Amino acid sequence: MVRRAGRRWGAMVARLRWGGQLRAARKAVATDRGRAEADADPRYRLALARSLRTLAELLAKVDRPAEGLPYAEEAVDLCRPLAETELARRRAVLAECLGTLGELLTTLVRPVAARIAQDEAAALEGAPEDLVAFYRPLAEADPIRRRPALAAALHHHASWLKQHGRREESLPVLEEAIALRRGLAEADAEAGAEADAEPFRRIALARSLGFLGELLGQLDRPADGLPYVAEAAELRHDLAAADADPRRGIALALCLRARCRLLLQLDRPAEALPFAREAVRLWRRVTESAADDRRYRAGLAVSLHTLGELLAKLDRPAEALAYAEEAVDLHRACVGLLGDHRLAGSLRTLGDVLTALDRPAEAQTARDEATALGDTEGQTEGQTEGQTKGDTGGETKGGGEGEAKPETP
């Protein structure tokens, strides 16, 4: 009797201790679910996944793991397609949700299912090469469910190799990722519009195609890279046309700018000009929708610089001047995001334009300021816009794929 009464008292203390936190967690889930349903931005889905995970953990602490299990499963289901699109950015959240799921399954005495979740969580926290090795046999055994994860792991591994100066080694890894993602996107298309209501797989394919195109350009193979970036841009056009959200245009603008860079490598600036103009138009649309967000203005600054530089190369300095001046102004305003070297690059382009317009004193002033900022040749427009807004698919060392604003699926 004493032991039974002690248990009841312990349960009552637990309810009192965790009751307030449970109510707050349920409220957070309801709030985040409303936001996720109203706006498809991945930030809101990830916030919902975190809220669900917190609720599941609290229910486990009050000895209600069976009630917590559906919340943990939903959290994993929310994270998985996002991680399969941008693994570097989302793998930590997916690993956390899988860890919670594994703990609940262990408590519910389901050791096999628990081990599967825990093993995947551990693999996500490991080296990129090991993650590929983890997913490969799973994809062979269950291609429908696991190929997207293998493709994401391959893309992530290719990006890691590139970041560590092993660009040639990254090519076959990335090509395998593209082959898998192309097959998955084609399977979605064959299944019909309903299966592709949220085009994660087309987004993932576009990321890998753009990444390969830029990588080939960096390996001095721009002619080989151009078709991949062009295909990525075509996918991005379709995705942007299907969504009224101006943020959809960010990824397309990045693809268009990558296309401009490759065409410039091939000494075809006239062909690049319409793509540069469209990129500026897309960035303007995004900045107008969120005028207070400096990250968007930074993206516009870089695209304006590209457009001004192209017009200067085409011997159209009078037309280039307005873009070059606006680029400098925006680079000044966003120097904390873009860095001194980008401001210096925009100043040097402005100096070239002013020289062509026979305004030597103003040109020299711009060049002097660029020199004072420590400008170095090759550290301006040759860098990808990924430092500000993400590139067309390569992941940054910071753990994400570089986009200040995640893509809206």
List keywords for this structure.
Serine Threonine Protein Phosphatase 5, Tetratricopeptide repeat; 3 domains; 18 helices; 0% strand; disordered C terminus
What report would you give on this structure?
- With 409 residues, the chain is mainly α.
- It folds into three domains: 13-123, Serine Threonine Protein Phosphatase 5, Tetratricopeptide repeat (Alpha Horseshoe); 142-197; 204-409, Alpha Horseshoe (Serine Threonine Protein Phosphatase 5, Tetratricopeptide repeat).
- It is 80% helix and 0% strand.
- It has 18 helices and no strands.
- It has helices at residues 2-38, 42-61, 65-85, 87-107, 111-124, 128-141, 143-163, 167-191, 200-218, 222-241, 248-265, 269-289, 294-313, 317-333, 335-338, 340-356, 360-372, 386-389.
- The longest helix is centred in the N-terminal third of the chain and has 37 residues, at 2-38.
- It is elongated and about 80 Å long.
State the fourth-level CATH superfamily of the largest domain.
Tetratricopeptide repeat domain
Content-based structural category: mainly alpha
Number of domains: 3
Q: What's the alpha carbon Rg, rounded to whole Å?
A: 25 Å
Q: Give the end-to-end Cα distance, rounded to a whole number of Å.
A: 58 Å
Helix content: over 70%
Strand content: under 5%
Succession of helices and strands: HHHHHHHHHHHHHHHHHH
**What sort of overall outline do the alpha carbons produce when their principal axes are compared?**
elongated
CATH class of the largest domain: Mainly Alpha
Give the assembly state of these chains.
Answer: single chain
Count of helical regions: 18
Low-pLDDT stretches are 375-392, 394-409
Let me know the number of strands. 0
Region (Disordered): 361-409
Biased composition (Basic and acidic residues): 361-370, 392-409
InterPro entries: TPR-like_helical_dom_sf, TPR_rpt
Protein name: Tetratricopeptide repeat protein
